């Protein structure tokens, strides 16, 4: 019984980890954002009605719509919405993005939209 449970647990973990593909690029074509994984295969297509693409990291991308930045995961699911009052996004890379505030300070946020302590 323990042996079977261990095998099932390992299989579940392997499937879970493979579902978290990394974003290699995003292309805008025919009113859709086409999200490609690290193998160069299209993982998802999302309507561009979600907003204007700001940038992407390895596991998330950011769009801007009206006065909001919206953080989406690699499958296009909305994870977090932030007001544009945080400042201008000047870089998106890896699992973080960088914002320049209106007063000129620079802040770093993680892919969950949480400010990283500096």
Strand-pairing-aware structural class: alpha+beta
Enumerate how many helices there are, as a single number: 1
What string gives the helices and strands in order?
HEEEEEEEEEE
Report the major sheet: 4 strands, antiparallel
Low-confidence stretches: none
Distance between the termini: 49 Å
The count of strands amounts to 10
Total separate domains: 1
- Percent of residues in helices: 10-25%
β content, as a range?
over 45%
Average the pLDDT over all residues and give the rounded result: 88
Assign an overall shape.
Answer: globular
Strand order, biggest sheet?
Answer: 4-5-6-7
How does this model look, in words?
The chain has 118 residues and is of the alpha+beta class. Helices cover 15% and strands 49% of the residues. The protein has one helix at residues 2-19, and strands at 23-29, 32-37, 42-47, 52-56, 60-65, 68-73, 78-83, 88-93, 96-100, 106-110. A four-stranded antiparallel β-sheet has the order 4-5-6-7, with no helix packed on it. The protein starts with a helix and ends in an 8-residue tail after the last strand.
Q: How are the elements arranged and paired?
A:
Layout: H1 2-19, E1 23-29, E2 32-37, E3 42-47, E4 52-56, E5 60-65, E6 68-73, E7 78-83, E8 88-93, E9 96-100, E10 106-110
Antiparallel strand pairs: 1-2, 2-3, 4-5, 5-6, 6-7, 8-9, 9-10
Short description:
With 118 residues, the chain is α+β, with helices and mostly antiparallel strands. The protein contains one helix and ten strands; from the N terminus they run αββββββββββ. The model has no long low-confidence stretch (mean pLDDT 88).
